Amino acid sequence: VQLQASGGGLVQAGDSLRLSCAASGRNLSTYAMGWFRQAPGKEREFVAGTSRSGLSTKYADSVKGRFTISRDNPKTTVYLQMNSLKPEDTANYYCAAASTIFVIDTRPQYWGQGTLVTVSS
């Protein structure tokens, strides 16, 4: 499956932004989907994941209550709604696909390219 992330940009602290990840090549409902991020000088970290149906989700503690992952399987797109953004959310954000939500945070199989989110204070 090929993944294409978009929607990054420069925003101010407290603003909102929605990232999109368009999938092609396979039926999106076959995969659990997730978002990761990598800040400059830091390792890539898990942000959010959703099950194949979208009924189950999980989040990193740092984004709980601020970020929401969702998916539209007919449109083969996964979203990350980011609210109350903080400067520490600045990073390249990547979407990923895995076989199940149980491994989306540890064993993603496919990666999209990153989209840069910059949050100014």
The structure class reads mainly beta
What is the tally of helical segments? 0
> How many beta strands in the DSSP annotation?
11
- Arithmetic mean pLDDT: 96
Q: Largest beta sheet, briefly? A: 7 strands, mixed
Please tell me what the overall shape is: globular
Helical residues, percent: under 10%
Radius of gyration: 13 Å
Which descriptors would you attach to this protein?
7-stranded mixed β-sheet; single chain; 50% strand; mainly beta; 121 residues
Walk me through what this model shows.
The radius of gyration is 13 Å and the shape is globular. 0% of the residues lie in helices and 50% in strands. It is an all-beta fold. The mean pLDDT is 96. It has no helices and eleven strands.
Entry summary:
With 121 residues, this protein is an all-beta fold. It has strands at 2-6, 9-12, 17-24, 32-38, 45-50, 57-59, 67-72, 77-82, 91-98, 110-111, 115-120. The strands form 2 sheets. Strands 2, 4, 5, 6, 9, 10 and 11 form a 7-stranded mixed beta sheet that branches.
Summarize the SSE layout with pairings.
Blueprint: E1 2-6, E2 9-12, E3 17-24, E4 32-38, E5 45-50, E6 57-59, E7 67-72, E8 77-82, E9 91-98, E10 110-111, E11 115-120
Parallel strand pairs: 2-11
Antiparallel strand pairs: 1-3, 3-8, 4-5, 4-9, 5-6, 7-8, 9-10, 9-11
